[in-house]
Amino acid sequence: MGVAVLKLMISQTRVLLFLSALLSTSLTWAQPKCGSLFNVLRLAPTYSFIDVATRFPKLLNTIEDVGQNLRVDPTVSHLRDLPFQRSNPYRGTPELTMIERAGQLDPEMHKVMITAYNSLNDRSFLTRYLKDLFAETVEMMFAKGHPADLKALERGYVTERAIGLVVVRRLKEAGDDAFTTLTGSRLSHGKAKVNEQELVRLNGQFREAIRTGPFFDRQFSEKDPWNHGPFSHLIQRDIVQRAFKEKLRSEQPEFWAFLGTKKGVGWWVDIFDSGGGLSFSRPESMNRYLHQNLFGSP
Question: What is the pTM of this model?
Answer without folding.
Answer: 0.80
